[in-house]
Specification:
It is a single chain. Helices cover 71% and strands 0% of the residues. The protein has 8 helices and no strands. The radius of gyration is 18 Å and the shape is globular. It starts with 11 loop residues before the first helix and ends in a 6-residue tail after the last helix. The mean pLDDT is 84.
Length: 226
């Protein structure tokens, strides 16, 4: 078992109690019917559920030592975390742009076709706005608190490899079949958290990355133009 130094550490009691609360909320949410034709109502339900789960985890963290810092959250780390998250994002964006350019120029990969079905075919901006908000702000905060702050933070005591693989696998699993983007993202978010020891960094990186993907998808599918 590695020395924890100043690395955030999640206790077993906090971890398992949080998982129990999250599982209970997911079951209760599944029992609440949502009209299938109401897309905005569906995403509102998702937003409320994720906000409730996140709030419960944060409240539980505050009751266990050492508090919110066990999740890598500190008041003085918010602004530095945002700035470092933006820096990580810019570096990764350069790498992705280089790979994307190689795919298009060298292998003639049909980039526009890859994004043709990448976003739901919402017929109104209200539904699309709720989807984008859920996928950027809500997902960035809630998923990082759960998968990096909670899962990664608990498993990290047994080594970086285990924490990185398991948290990324769970993160990818909830996103459905062949989630290649989530696998790459999960590894990147975990490594940024390991390096910075500040959960605001992967939160910023996650939210910004999702926004860029959605914007690119909207542009390449012809739904927006600039």
């Amino acid at each position: 078992m590695e020395p924890v130094a100043d690395r955030p550490r999640v206790s077993a009691g906090f971890f398992f109690l949080s998982l129990g609360v999250i599982a209970s909320l997911e079951v209760l949410a599944a029992l609440v019917p949502t009209p299938p034709e109401t897309v905005t109502a569906l995403w509102t339900k998702v937003i409320l559920l994720r906000a409730l789960e996140t709030g419960c985890v944060l409240l539980l963290a505050a009751r266990f030592r050492p508090g919110l810092s066990s999740l890598g959250l500190r008041r003085k780390g918010i602004l530095p975390g945002i700035l470092r998250g933006i820096l990580w994002g810019l570096c990764f964006l350069v790498l992705v742009a280089a790979v994307g350019a190689a795919l298009v120029l060298v292998w003639h990969f049909p980039l526009r076709r890859a994004f043709a079905g990448g976003l739901p075919g919402f017929g109104n901006w209200e539904a699309l706005a709720s989807y984008l908000f859920a996928g950027t702000v809500v997902a960035g905060i809630s998923e990082e608190i759960i998968f990096r702050g909670l899962v990664f933070g608990f498993l990290r005591r047994w080594g970086l490899a285990l924490a990185l693989i398991v948290s990324t696998a769970l993160f990818a699993f909830i996103h459905g079949a062949a989630p290649y983007t989530q696998i790459v993202g999960g590894l990147l978010f975990g490594l940024s958290y390991e390096k910075e020891k500040n959960l605001v960094v992967p939160i910023t990186l996650h939210a910004g990355g999702n926004f860029m993907l959605y914007a690119l998808g909207l542009y390449l599918s012809g739904r927006i133009a600039w």
